[in-house]
Every structure is written in C-alpha cells, then in structure tokens.
C-alpha cells in the first residue's frame, strides 16, 4: 500500500496535508526519513512513525450499535440522519456501513463495519443466519400464530416467508414476543404480523447469529466488538473458505 494512502486512511490528513508533513521530515519508515508519499509499505513488516509515534494500521473496524429510533440504516440519506452520522469522525474515516437494515423506527443490535466479506456472511439469505427480535404486538398472540409462523407466513405480496420461531412472552390485548427469522425482507416482521391481523407497535433486534445486544449499551451508544465476538465473526469468514 502507498504510504500516503495508508496515512490518509488512518486520519493523518489528505494527501496534500501529508506532502507538507513529509517535506518537514516528520515521517519515518524503519527509522529512515521518507519524503516520497508514493513509497509502498508492508503494514505487517514496516515500522511507520509520524513525529516519532508508531502508526498502527487497522484495515477493518467492527462496531456494535444499539440503534435508536429515528435513524435510517444507510451510509447516506437525503431526508433523514443515518446511523453512520452518529459515529465519531475517527470511525467514519474507515467508510463503514451497517450490516443489514433496521427500519427507521426499529431499535437494537446493529453491526457496523467496513468488512464486506463478513457482511455477506451475515446477511446473505443463503447463509440462514438467525436474527432475533423483541416486539410488542397490538393484539392477542396465540399458539395458532406460533404454528402459522413455523409453517411460513404468506406475506401481502404472495411471498411465503421462511419458517420463523415465535415465542410468546406475554399474551393480552398488547402482547410481548420474541421472533427469530433467517431472512430480511422489507418490513418483514411487521408484515408477518399484519398477515395474522395484528400490528407491531415496538420492535427491537436483540441478536444476530451469536452476536447479542450488550445490555449495558444505552440506546444510541456504540462500542467495538469484544475478542469473543470477533472470534465468532472471523469464524464466519473462515467457514466460507473451507
């Protein structure tokens, strides 16, 4: 990778800014002053310093967000604020994107990364990665609904959804449930309940694969994935290569 591209990606400024830093002899590679930003470096071997401080190159970022309502799961949007707008500039430098889509009014677990390979493993319909949601439902959810969801609900456009696991937490005029699906059609959970004449009034994703929403993460907060969470993510990437 070019030295100026690496340093720009790590937030040390534009290539124009870096030319000035290089000119001042503030950048070294393996303890030797470098003036040419086009120099190619090996991030696994070369020791790069800016003003005497070692630059640790990071290719990917992996963030867990407890998404708040009111934000869209996109990188840019002409009408609404996006989940990427919520990130500190130090993370935005990596050009991250949300893995999968939560509706504007849906809350909960959202993985944000710039690792396209991992994103594919988690959201591709062929991978059957389970996503679990907690929801409040207007209407009395019944055992009959559990059976219908398990058999595959027919949506309003005629599409038969894949079997889904429905767990009733509380059944009343307003019910509370957990539902696990393996696909992510547009407004899918809401449309599934519409199909049994009930309405989702609150929806929160709490799990995706083995990634569970951190209960200590307040709405709108983010954190980097833990070692155990990273181990799961990397296992998904390796599995595709085996």
Count every beta strand, where a strand is a DSSP E run of 2 or more residues: 13
Rg over CA atoms, rounded to whole Å, is 23 Å
Mean pLDDT: 93
The portion of residues forming beta strands comes to 25-35%
* Helix proportion range: 10-25%
Overall outline: elongated
Q: Structural class of the helix and strand makeup?
A: alpha+beta
The low-confidence runs, each spanning 5 or more residues with pLDDT under 50, are none
User: First CA to last CA: what distance?
Assistant: 28 Å
**How many helices does DSSP assign?**
7
Query: In this structure, how is the largest beta sheet organized?
Result: 9 strands, mixed
Give the topology string: H per helix, E per strand. Answer: HHEEEEEHEEHEHEEHEEEH
What does this structure look like?
The chain is of the alpha+beta class. Helix content is 24%, strand content 26%. It contains seven helices and 13 strands. The chain has helices at residues 3-9, 15-23, 89-92, 116-123, 143-151, 188-194, 227-241; strands spanning 27-29, 32-33, 48-50, 53-54, 62-67, 97-98, 107-113, 131-138, 165-170, 174-181, 199-208, 211-212, 222-224. The strands form two sheets. Strands 5, 6, 7, 8, 9, 10, 11, 12 and 13 form a nine-stranded mixed β-sheet that branches. α4 crosses α7 (227-241). The protein starts with a helix and ends with a helix. The mean pLDDT is 93. Keywords: Isomerase, RNA-binding.
